[in-house]
Amino acid sequence: SLMSLPLCHPQLEGLCSFLQLSSCPEPFLVRFCSWLLALTPDLSYTSAAVLAEQLFLRRVLSLTQPPSRHLMAALTSFCSKYSHPFCRVLVAAVLQEPGEGAEQTKLMCELVEECLEPHSVHLVLSQVLEVPLSEKLLPVLQAVLGRQEVLPPELLDLLVLTLCQQAPAFATSLNYARLVTAVLTVCQSQVS
């Protein structure tokens, strides 16, 4: 099989482009992802990141309505095994996207709630806290807290600090008020 060859970065991108993976029909994408998950040994981090970008980036950034059943199936199956590289590529791109990005935000919330391993949920949280907080990102933070995971102390500190610093900007935001309540509820044993 092609993927059992040790491919370097440009070769893998070339292969993806040859196979037209970024625009292949979604049912094929689902099959391709299940084939990827069955490969042994697992893909390297770099290969998984290249594939996450080639398979999903364009599709996710161009969403204007909820993802199709097929796209969601492909995303969740890929995420189940390669959530770290997936978050590094996709979440980062969505966070840098200007504007509302309502569908992208909903998708991120859904992945956080349903698919990601705890360590990847922490990664998403740290990625969100690296960018200026906006109304668009509040639901993602809410989804992270909804997982009821115990957060690493440094991440929790950063979250609380960010929320305190940003309070004046969100004085009239209902989502912000909900988020602060969630932090106090979920992390009460950690927040003094």
UniProtKB/TrEMBL annotation:
GO terms for cellular component: Fanconi anaemia nuclear complex. Residues 8-191 form the Fanconi Anaemia group E protein C-terminal domain. InterPro entries: FANCE (IPR039685), Fanconi_anaemia_gr_E_prot_C (IPR021025). Gene3D superfamilies: 1.25.40.480. Signal peptide: none annotated. One of its GO terms (biological process) is interstrand cross-link repair. This is FANCE protein. Pfam families: FA_FANCE.
